[in-house]
Amino acid sequence: MEEHEEPFRHTPLDLSTNSIRLIEYVCLSYVWGPDDETHTITINGQPFQVRRNLWDFLKTASTHVRRRDFNALWIDALCIDQSNLLERNHQVKQMGSIYRNAHHVIAWLDDDAFVARHNQEAWITHHQKSDDHNLGELRMFCDNEYWQRAWITQEVFLAREIFFLAGMNVLDLKSLLGGAKVYISGLTRRTGYQHFQPFYDIQERSGTFSLLENLWRFRQKECSDWRDAVYSLLSISEDAAYLDVKYDISRVALALEVMQNPQEDFCLCHA
């Protein structure tokens, strides 16, 4: 970066309205990853730092853009001013609408071996033959760190359509589930279903659950900010509209807000 160059700065949003930064768009669903390796991109002629996983995606995406697979992308790290607490609160509250209204969602799995080896046509043909190799690859797919991220649950559940991208291969959710069912029906008898939990979660995405139920269902998900264990579930919980997003809130205060749910009865008891 040249010394005289000013870093990119977001133009402030009107926080009095439900505004977000977008045009007709596709959403990206991905793992942020560690911040110890960053790369410089250019936004509106100004430098901006991104983490390695997003950098890898953007390099791959440039080829897909040339192929017209997608053009306009909404990416949280770029479209939300992460340094502005008020904007972050405002935009995260709308994350459900953002992903729900996207034309489709791209799930970036980087170098995932399963997706990298199976495009739509290859997987549809390949899954007709059940074997241990396919089973092993499916398990590796479910073990991808992508599925451990708290925000992934909402992003996948709310997507109109989702495509998994690894390298230059793309696999859509419908094809993936169609092939996986061949194995899942037998897996529950042969091996622990927990190894393939993402498939069970996706199949239940149309169900209706309370915030407390979702907090229990997805209690093992990971997030760099502990508040996201709650905020990542707001848009898929039937009774969470009463909660506001506040990234400066304490653990105790957030716990009390969750317990103020008007649709839940709490009994705080001790022996």
From TrEMBL:
A Pfam family the protein falls into: HET
Protein's recorded name: HET-domain-containing protein
InterPro entries recorded: HET (IPR010730), HetReg/Transcr_Mod (IPR052895)
Coiled-coil annotated residue ranges, if any: none
Domain Heterokaryon incompatibility intervals: 25-155
Organism: Dothidotthia symphoricarpi CBS 119687
PANTHER family: ANKYRIN REPEAT DOMAIN-CONTAINING PROTEIN 39 HOMOLOG-RELATED, HET DOMAIN PROTEIN (AFU_ORTHOLOGUE AFUA_8G01020)
